[in-house]
Amino acid sequence: MQNQVALFSVLMIGAVAYGQACDPMSIFAPEVRTQMGSEPEDIAAADFDEDGDLDLVIAGVTLGTRFFQVMLNNGDGSFAAPVQHPLMSNPFCVVVADMNNDSHMDVIVGHGSIPDVSIALGDGMGGFSPAIQYSAGGFATINDLVVGDWDGDGFNDVAVVVNGNHIRTLQGDGAGGLGPQTTKLTFGVSVALAVADLNADGDPDLVLGDQNGEVKVLYGIAGDDFAVQTGVDVGVFVQHLDLADMDNDGDLDVVVSGILPSEIVVVENTGAGVMTLGPSQSIAIVPQGVATADFDSDGNNDVIVALSNTNALALMRGNGDLTLNTQINYGAGFDNLRVVAGDLDGNGSADVACASGNGLSVSVLLNTCAAGCPADLTGEGDLNFLDVSAFLAAYGNMDPSADFEPDGMFNFLDVSAFLAAFAAGCP
């Protein structure tokens, strides 16, 4: 009887954890566009001045002047004027991470003219030290880069795609510097990287997309090494990819934007990191960058796509079973290259910012869809001991509804995230 009651509680949690979805045609407010005076190539978000709001960093170049730019958030999703920080070479991609273990977010840039990585250390107040450049070896360009602790020493390292066919790791020294590069594997025409622990073994894995139409997973092995899964043929030339749980099973899946044909393809993580081809959805206009979040507050992850050669972003709502609805376009920028999702105005809903190449601008679209109340697991509209009890039951059964982090694992991070959501209350 006790088990039946627990199971009933878990089923009820899954049924009522989220509220009614918002109107998909009016999720985002009209764009607010900032002219950058440069051609943005990539964009990322982090709290650089540690005021609790997400700021933006943009990698861009114009008239031979090379720099990354930071736009500090005013706290309401509007941003201060961009501040330029010089670089030695053309930037192509940018990520953020703490590279010197001082709890401040730093900026890591991959260059598009030479195979180098630059690191600018953040001071926690929105400022940065002069960028220092490190060689990744080889020649030509860095196509993409990600950050993770590949060697298990507690310091962040960098992995890059160099020349379109070499995966290299650069060991972080814990002080913000990078050691000599190590070539791991060679592939053909690789263009996109993502990182996560897909098989729940505690080691970060690499997801690699290439223009031969494959997605591969490089499973991390303690000691800075990788094991390779046979590639999944996705039937498109990969442009970009992101990771999200698209079927609510607690595992991160791969969302791919691709061309020839222009499609968004989902690669399913079936458990323990085993990847299989999932459904695809056609998309009009050439897709570029892709980001994921629950934009319509229905409990399912959705997809936002940057569209090149046009002034729009495409929203494709997820159904929670790997499938996507047809696109809904929202006006933004022109010739959009990359997109990032995050709560920019502090209202609990995921907003969007995109880098527009030929538009020489950054566009911000704030989400007007009221966020649900994630900690209200009983669906009563308020938070009380019943929600705590429901969480404990789901956690004990390792039900995905208790994966508050979410990363496919059940640990103190989920407990902490639930308690934070509980403390935040309901709108």
What does this molecule look like?
- Strand 24 (302-307) and strand 25 (312-316) form a beta hairpin.
- The protein has helices at residues 2-16, 385-396, 412-424, and strands spanning 32-35, 39-46, 55-62, 65-71, 83-86, 91-97, 106-111, 116-120, 132-135, 142-148, 157-162, 166-172, 178-186, 190-196, 205-210, 214-221, 225-228, 232-233, 237-244, 253-259, 263-269, 275-282, 287-293, 302-307, 312-316, 328-331, 336-342, 351-356, 361-365.
- It is built from 3 helices and 29 strands.
- Strands 14, 15, 16, 17 and 18 form a 5-stranded antiparallel β-sheet that branches.
- Helix 1 crosses helix 2.
- 9% of the residues lie in helices and 42% in strands.
- The protein is mainly β and 427 residues long.
- Mean pLDDT is 87; it is low at 1-20.
